[in-house]
Fold this sequence. Notes:
The chain is an alpha+beta fold. The protein folds into 4 domains: about 5-25 and about 45-240, no CATH class; about 260-540, no CATH class; about 630-720, SH3 type barrels, CATH 2.30.30; about 720-800, Alpha-Beta Plaits, CATH 3.30.70.100. It is built from 26 helices and 10 strands. It has helices at about 5-30, 35-40, 45-90, 95-115, 125-170, 180-240, 260-280, 285-310, 320-325, 325-340, 350-365, 370-390, 400-420, 430-450, 455-495, 515-530, 535-540, 540-550, 560-585, 595-605, 605-625, 630-645, 650-665, 705-710, 735-750, 785-800, and strands at about 550-555, 555-560, 670-675, 675-685, 690-695, 700, 710-715, 720-730, 760-765, 770-780. The strands form 3 sheets. Strands 6-5-4-3-7 form a 5-stranded antiparallel sheet. It has a 3-stranded antiparallel sheet with strand order 8-10-9, with helices on one face. It has a two-stranded antiparallel ribbon with strand order 1-2. β1 and β2 form a beta hairpin. α4 (about 95-115) packs parallel to α6, α10 (about 325-340) packs across α15 and α14 packs antiparallel against α15. The protein is flat. Mean pLDDT is about 75; it is low at about 20-30, about 495-510 and about 585-595. Keywords: Cell membrane, Membrane, Signal, Transmembrane, Transmembrane helix. It comes from Pedobacter ginsengiterrae. It is a multi-pass membrane protein. Pfam families: MS_channel_2nd, MS_channel_3rd.
Amino acid sequence: MSFKTLRYILIQALILVSVAGTFGQTKDSLPSDSSKLKTKLSFVARMQQFAEKSAKSSIDDFEGDKAAIAQNRILEEIKKKIQKAKSFLKNGVDTLGTKAKLISLNEDFTIAKDGVLTNKGSSQTFRNLTTTSKILTELLNKANASKAKLDLYQSEVNRFRYDLDSLLSQRDLFKFSSDSATLSKFMGQLVVAAYEVNPVDSSLKKENNSIQGMLNQVNLQVFKIETGLEEIERYKQDIARNTFYRDFDNIWGKVAFYRPFSEILNQAQAKGLLTLVFYLQNNIGKLAILLLIISAAFIYLRSLKSIYEANKLTTDNYEGQRVLRYPFWSALLISVSLFQFMFFSPPFILSVIFWLISSLSLTIIFRGFITKYWMNVWLLMAVFFIISALDNLILQASRTERWLMLALSLTGSIVGLMVLFKGRKEELREKLILIAIGLMVFLELASSITNIFGRYNLSKALLISGFLDVVVAILFLWTIRLINEGLFLAFNVYTKQDPKLFYLNFEKVGKKVPVAFYLLLIFGWIILFGRNFAGFEYASAPFRDFFARERTIGDYSFTINSLLLFILIMGISVATSKIVSFFASDKHQVQDDKSKNALQSVGSWLLLIRIGILSLGLFLAVAAAGIPVDRITIVLGALGVGIGFGLQALVNNLVSGLIIAFEKPVNVGDIIEIDGQGGTMKSIGFRSSVISTWDGADVIMPNGDLLNSHLINWSMGGSKRRTLLSIGVAYDSNLEKVKEILTQTLDGNPNVIKTPPPSVNYEQFGNSSIDIKVFFWTKHFREATQTKSELIIAINDAFKSADIKIPYPQQDITIYKNEDFDTRK
């Protein structure tokens, strides 16, 4: 019910109240003849009339009370709904910000359509279509996001209006009391409610109209973008189908469409920046991961370099150890070259940035390593690549650009031929580079020919592909070489590491690069090479569809991409956990007590760190793969059944590992003793722990047994130990002198600590000596045995000098002669 309807009803009700009051006054003033009637009615009739009147009065009172309760409830709900509506309108959508986004969206759309939908020219270019498509796709996503936000806000506005109208239209609200005073009071409440509803209802209407206006603009923008994308898709299909057909006239022919070259450059710059900004905004997480990988690789290579320098294992000029001479640039080259494939369908300008960073890193690594001739060849190829990459960023064709492309392709072909036929091949370290240069010559010659005869799109793809072929081939070859070199160098110093800590078989790593690495190189090169051609996207579409197609097993739907993503994330988390354990257990970095204590501190928390890494990896893998939570519940239920039937011991060990990790009765590096066997705690794992005994063996003990054993932890008491030394002296010895000698000997040993002081106690009179017990404390558990040995030597020498005897155990035997037992008689 609208506010106007409510106001009409209120006016009518007020009129009725006033009329009812007047009628009541008139009725009271009229004479009554009821006395005459009463005399004629019988007693029974009067009682029946009284009963009916009382019943009707009771029913009216009950209905009136019921209506009053309902009316109060409705009025209270109206007040609450009004407050919520006011709060919603106050904190509603930012209309100014939305309008600013729409203006920015329209400006970006104007930039994107330039050269494709407007200022088309005589023919479209593949690079312009690809870049414009990426921009329009991002603009469409932003427009749809704004549209969804406005739709949701408008639905909330309409819901508030609907709720208020529903409350104002309830029938209980218009059940008026027969009592004029009660009715007047209720009508006053209705008037107040009506005046409170009126401004809110007007604000909701106004807000709805405003949102609808913005929605109309957004919908219009969405329609324009979708229409532009459809047109671009048709252009791209035409170019893919007509790859070898003519795009323009011959290079010396007539110009069909002219646009100043400065405008073309400005258009390319604006579109290139837009694509880069949009892509970086959507992939900020991957960039953060890339920085973490670069940092981790640099830390690893720097630690490896410090090990080699500390052990004086480095060679002159770092021959075969280039990865150690430039750990930062090597880490940067390896990380960027490999991780660039994690950026799916990146804009060309981002790929150029990655390639430039890698080329700069490799140039620094090459310095002082390769000969001057091949260094110049590399720099020349890098310059050719940079120029061709900048040219590839130009989106709209022009006659000026075509002449520049022809000059560049011919120059590259001539240089390539000179390197192939007159180059110093004997100085070349990687012979495979010659194959890449030969392919470059072929592609650049093909680019020159196709450019001359008007095949612009094909010519441009061949131009960038030729130089990209050489640069990427060199980058990948050296990336693989540096990776293999780093693994080989690690093998020389990490051969004694626990193989369970790091899944890498160093024994299979040699100076020769494995074939699998070259296969990965070729696969990556094909991807980068194919991205430059219009037909690559359509040729790779079946493969993308195969991995992205949704499959169903029972009620669960999945894609191969999601499964691969799950496996990849879990693999990374497991590898990260192992790498953390690897470096935490690295004994090569322990050179002093401070480093040793830091290593033990890390090792004590190692299990919790690994659990945290694996738990986070599992959570991210499940979220990324889109696995439903109810499926995880089923798996946990099945696991519970398995625990009940036969996995009690395994679960006991796992839980015991967690208890050890949290309560810390023992830490990594602690000196312990179990059942009389001592050793050092080497590692604490999920299921079992490793103890290095004094005999040199490693004892693998389940965590449950470790927790339930009578464990003696010497390290928790500060690693000091009290030792007993038992001595016996002859009965004729000067006991005061003996005690003085023992005290001086104990004080003279540096390993015997003074607090608590040593103790010399005379225990008993033995069979052949007076027994003495000497108690002393050593600084460290490991020093007890050696200190005891030293004290025995010192005490023996001191006793000899003081003529104090340590008697041998002796027994006197007395032989009695008895004539009765003389056998000779």
